[in-house]
Write a structure and sequence with these properties.
Distance between the termini: 24 Å
């Protein structure tokens, strides 16, 4: 699907043409309390010109091509807040937002942007989890500064996709997250694979010693849930508990 640069640019600076974005929410469940602990906001796109859906990867790819990744990241966050005002009105649960760590810089305005947006949309930082993929950050120093600033503001710090590709233990120690989301690559068929079980147990032990909470993401079967629970995991996200919805 081809997207006109002009339309995409206009939308990214909040004009009314081109790409429409909306947020869907997937529940994150606490097994011990049998309650929904949080919802992760997931972006979905629609091309007004062609009348077709756009995959998230296509949206982010277009933004990067146009050097508008920061603007698109902000647009996604704003969309998540706007939709969650209605979606989460009667829910006592956190909202998890994905942060594009490749856009993090030392600029003070960048550090304060998410805090200002959160408060302007009527939310307190303490009910917002910021999901970071530490391996995508260009600078460990910038990442550390960003995390420190957001933690002081009251945000919950979440490391996303831990255990995938280039996840870095050194950066994990640098960030000291409140929640570690364990990547689907480790969770998939964990009930059948002793090696995966050993890795999961090690991550849980590390989290336990540092005061973090482990979250198993991409959980799809009852067997995966049971195995993770027996290894100490209490937070779960995946099709086994619910699909993304509005």
């Amino acid at each position: 699907m081809t997207l006109k640069k002009e339309d995409f640019k206009k939308k990214l600076v909040y004009a009314s043409m081109g790409v429409q974005v909306c947020s869907y929410y997937q529940p994150i469940v606490c097994l011990q309390s049998s309650k929904i602990f949080a919802y992760e906001a997931l972006i979905r796109g629609w091309n007004d010109c062609s009348g077709g859906e756009m995959a998230p990867a296509e949206l982010f790819s277009c933004a990067e091509e146009l050097h508008l990744s920061k603007e698109f990241d902000l647009l996604c966050q704003r969309s998540a807040f706007e939709f969650y005002k209605d979606f989460g009105r009667s829910r006592e649960a956190l909202l998890f937002l994905n942060i594009n760590t490749s856009c993090i810089s030392e600029s003070l305005s960048e550090k304060e942007k998410i805090t200002a947006l959160t408060k302007s949309m009527g939310f307190h930082p303490s009910v917002i989890g910021l999901e970071l993929i530490e391996s995508e950050a260009k600078s460990a120093e910038d990442l550390f500064t960003f995390v420190q600033n957001q933690r002081e503001s009251g945000f919950v710090i979440v490391v996303d996709d831990f255990g995938s590709e280039h996840s870095n233990l050194e950066r994990l120690m640098l960030i000291r997250p409140d929640i570690i989301k364990i990547d689907r690559n480790i969770i998939h068929n964990v009930d059948k694979d002793p090696y995966r079980q050993s890795v999961l147990k090690s991550i849980h032990s590390l989290a336990d010693m540092t005061g973090a909470i482990c979250l198993a993401e991409g959980v799809e079967t009852d067997e995966e849930v049971i195995t993770c629970a027996l290894l100490g995991i209490d937070l779960f996200q995946g099709f086994a508990f619910g699909n993304p919805s509005q």
